Amino acid sequence: MQKKIVILGSTGSIGTQTLDVVGRNKDIQVAGLAAYSNIDLLEEQIIAFKPQVVCVMLPEKATLLEERLKVKQIHTEVISGEEGLVTLATLESADMIVTAVVGMIGLLPTLAAIKAGKTIALANKETLVTAGELVMRSAKENKVGILPVDSEHSAIFQALRGNEHKSVSKLILTASGGPFRTYTKEQLEQVTVEAALKHPNWAMGSKITIDSASLMNKGLEVIEAKYLFDVEPSQIDVIVHKESIIHSMVEYVDGSTIAQLGQPDMRHPIAYALYYPERTDASYIKSLDFASIGTLSFEAPKKNLFPCLQFAYDALEIGGTMPAVLNAANEVVVASFLNKQIRFLDIPKIIHMVMEKHICINRPTLEDILGCDEWAREYSRKKVTEL
C-alpha cells in the first residue's frame, strides 16, 4: 500500500527537498501541503503532486490561490491559518506528517498529529525545544514514532540502531562552525547579514543559517537530542567538524564510537525518515570520495565567542519553561538581525537578558509554555527597540 504524507512547510528548504526525494522515487503519495505565503511555488507543487488539501497560513494568500486553482480547474481544497495547519496535520488519509515549518508554529500541529496517530518525520526542532517532555510523553501514550530529519539527529538515530540504550556513553553532535568559525571578537562586531547568510557547507533557510552562524542551531539540537534520545545533558557533547562529512556520533560504554558519514545533503536524512526502517536508492546524491577528502578535522567550539551554545545547555539544565523562552527570544532577535535592526553580537546579548528576566515555571502545561513564549517575544522586541 502506497504511503501517504503531508508536508508542513513545503515551500521551504526541507519541504522542497522532501518533494525532490518523493518526485524522484515516485512511490509516495502527497496527500497535503502547507506553506506560509509562497503561493507561486505552492501552485507549482500542487500541479506536480496533486495533493488532496493545501494550507496557506495567510488567509488573503489562500483566497488568491483558491481563485487561481478554480481558473485552472484544479480541485485541491485550500484552507488557511493555524487551524488549517492542525486540520492538515490530522488529515485522515495521511500516514506520516513531515513537520518542516520553521519555529514555534510547528508545535500545535505536531501535537495534534501525534494524538491522531500519525508518524512524525520531525524537521522542526523547536517542537522539542519548547515542549520536549509533553511531546515525547504524548508520542509514547499514542504509540507514535518520531523520526528525526535533522542530519545530526538522523545520524545518531542510525548509529543507535541495534544497540541498547544503557550501553550509550555519550552523543556527539558535529557542527560545521558556520561562516565565522575562525573570526575574532573584533571581526564578529563587523559581521553583516549578507556574510552570515553564506554558510560554507549547507543550503538552508535564512533563519537556520543565522542560527548556524551563532551556534544557536547546535544549542537547539542539544536540547532536541536530550528529549529524542532520553539522555542527560552531560551525555551530549558538541565538536566542530568543518567538513560536515561526519554528521554525528555515538560513543558507547566500551569505548567504541559509531559515526554516520555522508555528503552534506539533506536529502539523505529526509529519505531515511520517509522510508524507515528500509533504505531507498539515492544514487542521485554523489557518494563520498575518501581519497579526495583526504583528512577530517575537529576542534572544540568557542563558547566564549559564540555563547548561544552555552545558553542552550543552561536552559536545558534549568528546565521548565526556560528552553521555550530561549527559543522565543532567539526567533525574535534573528528576525531583527535579518531586518538589520540589530548587530550580530546583539543576538546573544538580548537572549541572555531575556533568560535572566524570566521566572521559570517547572513542569509546565502547554498553556504555560505558550504563555511564556508570548512573554519572551514581547520582552525581546522591547530590548531590540532599546538597543
TrEMBL record:
Residues 261-379 form the DXP reductoisomerase C-terminal domain. It catalyses: 2-C-methyl-D-erythritol 4-phosphate + NADP(+) = 1-deoxy-D-xylulose 5-phosphate + NADPH + H(+). Mn(2+) binds at D150, E152, E221. It comes from the Bacteria. Pathway: Isoprenoid biosynthesis; isopentenyl diphosphate biosynthesis via DXP pathway; isopentenyl diphosphate from 1-deoxy-D-xylulose 5-phosphate: step 1/6. Belongs to the DXR family. Catalyzes the NADPH-dependent rearrangement and reduction of 1-deoxy-D-xylulose-5-phosphate (DXP) to 2-C-methyl-D-erythritol 4-phosphate (MEP). This is 1-deoxy-D-xylulose 5-phosphate reductoisomerase. It comes from Cellulosilyticum lentocellum (strain ATCC 49066 / DSM 5427 / NCIMB 11756 / RHM5) (Clostridium lentocellum). The gene is dxr.
